[in-house]
Amino acid sequence: MGTILIVDENEEYRDHIYRFLNGLDYSVGLAFGYESAIGLLDSQTFDIALIDSKIVDGDIRSLIGEIRKRAPLTSILVMHDDSLRIQDLLGSAAREVFRFLQKPFYDAELNFQVKRALDDRLEHVGKSAESRSDDVANKHSEFIGQSPAILRIFRTLGRVAKTDASVIILGETGTGKELVAWMIHKDSLRAEGPFVKVNCAALPEQLLESELFGYEKGAFTGADKTRVGRFEHAYGGTIFLDEVADMSLATQAKLLRVLQQKEFERLGSNVSIKTDVRIISATNKSLTQMMRRGSFREDLFYRLNVISIRLPPLRDRGNDIGMLLEYCLKRSLAKSRRQIRGFKDDALEVLIKYPWPGNIREMENTIERAVLMAEDDFISVEDLDLIYAEDVGQLRSASYDITGTSEAAHPPPPPSTGDRVITLPPKGISLAEAERQLIEQALERCGGSQKKAAALLGVSSRVLNYKIMNMRRIR
Asked: Which of 41, 52, 118, 244 could be 8's S-S partner, Cβ–Cβ 3.0 to 4.6 Å?
């Protein structure tokens, strides 16, 4: 299954994680501090290092550095107690971390992140041509579908891939922009060259610049050796600049020079380095609005926007959703040992009607969690609880707002249990209709706030969300 190093001074936490992962057939090594971790790292290579931010007899940044020195491909997960301080604590070492896990966390979440970390490591390990082909086939299958928007994208990719033109991919988060960039590279004349990914939003300005262009020894405090940048690594291949809109204006100017003159300098050097790369960029922001505000350069936009591809959100892909659900289920089952046979009818209806604000990424995570949590042979509505987290429900409350109102109101206290608040009409009324009217009244009284309406009706936000979806479907 994989080898995992656990570094945690808390014996209770350490032992619980060990028992859980060992029960999933992982090979687990235990360390309580820096020295014991180094001893294990010297004796074997681990696929994953799961380390706590509080390190006995050492600090976490040093340990991360030693892990990278000994095993560059090990995926690092950091456990911590304070999400506000963890980035400051790690500094530049944060870019070496694959995922952060805030304590306390559930076993299912740990299992999910460990699987992700193993997938990430597999992606970076040298694989055979056959396994690479399988990986590409899996990625292409994520774009299965026959909706007009997807068919147009396939036709565009066929024309674009064989050129060297710059491409910008637009679309909401989770729609598959990185996947499309990889598909373009795979089908291009540069397919045998490297495909280098850079997330421009994940690094502050100074770190992003050094990541892209590299730096010379002594260029700044802590630069104890020369570092080759991503543009040098990508020579002869493709560089994918994800979230390019998050670049500072200064970095944008340097990127423009690369596009225009095909050269750049490392930080701390005056020597120009020639480059030969194809640039594919992506963003979920409106670059036209940013240009009007002066936060994105027009000249860079026109250089990046030789060809643009706009990916549709999942909610606009019609019948593709059902096909993608089946694909995500098969993929999750292949990773787990569960014998799930499919979705119950009501669960499938909820999944098809759900607006998927997180798009394909959210669908993958939702189905993988449902597979882990399901207690039956078929996934039920109850197994999908996690996709109705309150923050997502509030973000998308307008999608289900029956009243059309948007101003929040403070609900009055509920009547006492001794009062009769509902009177049966002389001709009777169906329970479904009575429930619908009560939900509509609650939403109207609470200004459209589902959270407040749920409290007024004595149910959770998730239950109310599901009932509203059923009401919309029935109508």
From this structure: 52
